């Protein structure tokens, strides 16, 4: 019996997780081919000062800013099969996460398989190689018709190549296509308009009046950075007024609604202001330019990919996997749950995907999967959830991981992960400037403790 060939698109955290676990199952899976459009692993965690285009004309896609620190502790961020180094603090600078991903790559011997574009094709990873098209095809094997995939890629020299796979895992993340909401009159704004995707550090904004639109994690972090750099900051958002302490000098306002012809900004309620800089911290769009959604019976809109059974696979093409499209999650364990399938590991998207490919999960019919997705949408819509928030998991992520574990026959995440995740969320709301000073350790599967580092 031939081994299952899998293409992985993206060498960020999700792609590395997928490659690691496929490589660990050589009896079932052939070595995967990992396509990565940049020259490095790490995806969005690879920081670069430059926000323009590369020498090849491709845009840099990292959303990291210089001073970013994680808003989750390493104890719940880590992949279960490789902890972060013990001496590190719980809340990490982005450099430490990038180093961790590089160490993960080396530890599980993914790195030796990496090749540069144009070199001998014996390896599983292809740097500076962008995927141009992923297309479903049918193949005749042993008198049976099977579904397969053609992946067409283009390397940095412009050389195109097409290869055939049994399955494709899309691990490209959702932090590369900035979403700027339609603001009437935005073209009249006389200052600088940018998205947080292009923000790197606060010093250039010192002394300037800046409106930050959006009060998610990035909006709050960037507002605090700008205020510390002596910018005059207005934090505009549609949430209820934030009740936790923000630094003096950050003015909260309702959401901006339009820009007048004279360049002034109008907020909900009619309040007017002028500013020199407008920074949108308004999230990102889903973008898969290599897919034909109609062909896959998918709808891909700014904030939604549907239908996806278990938030992973399109019912019409159950060998195509989207790893990590959900938002407001515990990311690395989430990827691990979606991909991996070894029940000896205690953590559950990679688990589920490989269990499907390995035949350990018997999927319902296409119609039943589509109905399950529709039932989910109907339930959330009845609760008043907007379309752009349908993929936000938040507190529902834990029951989701449990359902993947139940279906795939592997152990779920230990309760201590949820407990610590929720404790940090509480502290983040109470102390947005200081919660990262805490340090934690996992004691058992059900218990964590906080402690003070001595050095």
Question: Overview of this structure, please?
Answer:
The chain is an alpha/beta fold and 455 residues long. 23% of the residues lie in helices and 21% in strands. It contains nine helices and 21 strands. Strands 3-4-2-1-8-19 form a six-stranded parallel beta sheet, covered by helices on one side. A hairpin with a 5-residue loop joins strand 20 and strand 21. Helix 1 packs parallel to helix 5 and helix 6 packs parallel to helix 8. The longest helix is centred in the last third of the chain and has 17 residues. The termini are far apart.
Helix-strand blueprint:
Elements: E1 6-9, H1 13-23, E2 33-35, H2 74-77, H3 94-107, E3 114-115, E4 125-126, E5 129-141, E6 144-155, E7 160-165, E8 167-170, E9 192-195, E10 209-213, H4 217-228, E11 232-236, E12 250-253, E13 256-259, E14 265-267, E15 272-273, E16 277-280, E17 299-301, E18 304-306, E19 320-322, H5 331-339, H6 350-357, H7 366-382, H8 397-408, H9 415-430, E20 439-442, E21 448-451
Parallel strand pairs: 1-2, 1-8, 2-4, 3-4, 8-19, 9-16, 10-11, 10-16, 11-12
Antiparallel strand pairs: 5-6, 6-7, 13-14, 14-15, 17-18, 20-21
Search tags:
5-stranded parallel sheet, 23% helix, 21 strands, 6-stranded parallel sheet, globular, alpha/beta, 9 helices, 455 residues
